[in-house]
Every structure is written in structure tokens, then in C-alpha cells.
TrEMBL record:
<keyword id="KW-1003">Cell membrane</keyword>
<keyword id="KW-1133">Transmembrane helix</keyword>
<keyword id="KW-0812">Transmembrane</keyword>
<dbReference type="InterPro" id="IPR010432">
    <property type="entry name" value="RDD"/>
</dbReference>
<feature type="transmembrane region" description="Helical">
    <location>
        <begin position="150"/>
        <end position="171"/>
    </location>
</feature>
<feature type="transmembrane region" description="Helical">
    <location>
        <begin position="99"/>
        <end position="116"/>
    </location>
</feature>
<keyword id="KW-0472">Membrane</keyword>
<dbReference type="GO" id="GO:0005886">
    <property type="term" value="C:plasma membrane"/>
</dbReference>
<dbReference type="InterPro" id="IPR051791">
    <property type="entry name" value="Pra-immunoreactive"/>
</dbReference>
<dbReference type="Pfam" id="PF06271">
    <property type="entry name" value="RDD"/>
</dbReference>
<feature type="transmembrane region" description="Helical">
    <location>
        <begin position="62"/>
        <end position="87"/>
    </location>
</feature>
<feature type="domain" description="RDD">
    <location>
        <begin position="58"/>
        <end position="184"/>
    </location>
</feature>
<protein>
    <submittedName>
        <fullName>RDD family protein</fullName>
    </submittedName>
</protein>
């Protein structure tokens, strides 16, 4: 019983490793370092050092699978609606109708909302990865939408080979595509909730 009491007293007397003079509120869930209430409110039970530690890079397979899921989520609803319209109205005007593109627009809006909240599209969320800035902080929506997505798609419209060159950059040690370098982002494994 005295060992328990001594351990409890040492915890109660512990000081924050980042803010000397402040008593510890919790121990870091990752490294066990004592942290004060200020540090504990910064993240999910992590000290500041562990909170800002560089997250592990996403695997190439996870990135490819997430890209395929995002592409399927974007194309399949429009394709399905287009096929239904062609069966109902068998002429060329069926595929030119703007209603065929409505599901794709809806998917883009949902994806933008997911990216705004978590830094991860639907495919990335399913694979447990997300986009962050080069310094590890959350990436802004404009950075993801414009520099990582819209700019490469627009450039691939002019030069199809650019898409292949962009993807080949993923083979490098840093696992960053060309659009990641342009946007100043990385794709990392998302922390477990």
C-alpha cells in the first residue's frame, strides 16, 4: 500500500516538462512525459513534443487505393445516371444534358467539405491517410483544392504525359508526387481517434 501512496504522491508533485513551475495534469499517452493542463488541452493526451512530431508517411499503395476510390466516387454516379438517361432517351442529346454532371458536382462538394474538416477526401479517410502541409500542420482547403487537384488536372488536359510524370514522383524516398511539391504538402497516416 505504501508503494501505491508513494507513486501517487510523485505524480501529484510532478512538474510539466515544457512549462517548469506548473504541476502536471496528465502523462503523455505516447511517451509518458508529464504535462500541465495547457499542454494537455493542445491535443488528445499528448505532450507538445509528441503532438508536433512528424507523422509517418502514407504508403504508396494506400495513396493509390485512395485515388481509385475518389475517382470511382466521382465518375460512377454520373456514369450510372448517363446510362439511365441513354436508355430512357436514346439519342445523342442525352449525354449532353447538364443533369448528367449533377452527381459529380455533388461528390465534389462533399469531398470539399470532408477536406475542409479533416484534410482527407473520402478515399483518404477510408484508407486512414490525410494531407498536411510540409511542416506537419493541417493543409488549407485552397491549397488542396487548387494546387493539389485543380492545377494538375488542368495541366494534364494540355499534356497527358504530365499525369504520368506527376505519379512517378511518388516512387521517390519522400513519397511526394509532383503536385505535393507544388502545393507544399505531404500525405501522412492519420492519427487514430
Amino acid at each position: 500500500m505504501s508503494d501505491f501512496r508513494e507513486a501517487l504522491e510523485s505524480i501529484l508533485e510532478a512538474q510539466c516538462s515544457e512549462h517548469p513551475g506548473f504541476s502536471a495534469a496528465i502523462a503523455c499517452a505516447r511517451c509518458g512525459t508529464f504535462t500541465c493542463a495547457f499542454c494537455a488541452s493542445s491535443g488528445a493526451g499528448l505532450c507538445l513534443r509528441c503532438l508536433h512530431a512528424a507523422p509517418e508517411l502514407a504508403t504508396r499503395r494506400a495513396r493509390l487505393a485512395a485515388c481509385l476510390v475518389d475517382g470511382a466516387a466521382l465518375l460512377l454516379p454520373s456514369l450510372f445516371l448517363g446510362v439511365l438517361r441513354c436508355l430512357a432517351i436514346p439519342d445523342e442529346a442525352a449525354m449532353k444534358a447538364p443533369v448528367v454532371y449533377a452527381p459529380a458536382l455533388l461528390v465534389l462538394l462533399v469531398q470539399a467539405n470532408l477536406i475542409r474538416g479533416t484534410g482527407a477526401s473520402l478515399g483518404k479517410r477510408l484508407l486512414g491517410i490525410r494531407v498536411v502541409r510540409g511542416d506537419g500542420l493541417p493543409a488549407e482547403v485552397w491549397r488542396i483544392a487548387l494546387l493539389r487537384n485543380a492545377l494538375p488536372m488542368a495541366l494534364c488536359g494540355y499534356c497527358v504525359w504530365l499525369g504520368l510524370v506527376d505519379a512517378l514522383f511518388l516512387v521517390g524516398e519522400k513519397r511526394r508526387c509532383l503536385h505535393d511539391w507544388v502545393a507544399g504538402t505531404r500525405v501522412v497516416k492519420a492519427p487514430r481517434a
